[in-house]
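Dear colleagues,

As part of the handover before I leave the project, I'm documenting each prediction I ran so the next person doesn't have to rerun anything. This entry is a single chain, and its sequence is reproduced below.
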Amino acid sequence: MAARKKKVAKKVSAARARRSAVRKKTASRKRLTPSQQKRGLAGDEVKLELDAPELATLRTQVEAVGGTALGAYCEPLSGHPILLASLPIKAVEPTPFQRNLSPTHTKRLAAKIEESGSFLDPLIVVRGEDGRLWTPNGRHRLAAAKLLGLRQITALVSPDEGLSFRILALNTEKAHNLKDRSLEVIRMARELASRNKRTKESDYAVEFESPELLTLGIIYEENGRFAGGAYGPFLKKVDQWSSRSLSVSLRERTGMAARLVAIDGEVKRIITELQERGFKSPYLRTYVVARINPVRFHRPKKGDTKPPMALGAALTRMAASARKFEATSVRSGELALVAAVSSGDPD
């Protein structure tokens, strides 16, 4: 018994040392080196008059909803025209595929705005479907403004509707968790699939950020309490972009999502058995999923982006491992090791 404890302690110590090394490596990567190559517009090129022809349609739309054009400029990176406007708050709505509104965050944000006495952060607004004005990154600020009873809200209005599908990069007012990101991605995917039946899923790699978000998003639509974080490391290795049309790929992913939910059912059974044997660690799910992960030991070579196996095959092997899992094979020291190397919150 003493030898086993000593062996476990040694493993935990080694795991902590590896984690420390990773942190140091990550810290070195965070050093910022300004680019020597200058990009974008010069100061005099950014200036744009309100009566510029490229703003005519945008100004007309703003005025049609009762808004007022305040100024204009060329966006300094792309050079696209941007209109600074004051808009009636009722004329702006969040994109239909944004994450769910958090009443708690909205109330807190409204209170802070009230305390400061200023609403200084303009919304980003785009011309959405059917000419509507959408904000892809200001849902909580918009709701806070309504809570405060504001008549008008300041916005940077862009004619580029595509910005509404790059929401994850734009939305910085409240950090996205995995559930938020997944739900926004699947909502965007469904919207885009309804607009264009032939567009490939892989064409939206930038907008969707990561393929596993689509799979998890389908699950979160049905079960908002799904422990997606536990399956993230597995999915990141085997889930990839489909070259099929978006509508077809979503149907295929629905089947894959159902299989993952079934596996999670087996995981819950195993967790119950472990708890009955006296295991109370908050890392039980993380441990079990890691044990049945068929690609947990796969380490891709530098530059290799090919998955170790297809998602369907990986799910088949994972399900088989879950069914064969023996709760009696688990030792307490193994859970201590999982807790030591875990970098996120337990599910």
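The chain has 14 helices and six strands. Confidence is low (pLDDT under 50) at residues 340-347.

All the best with the project,
I.
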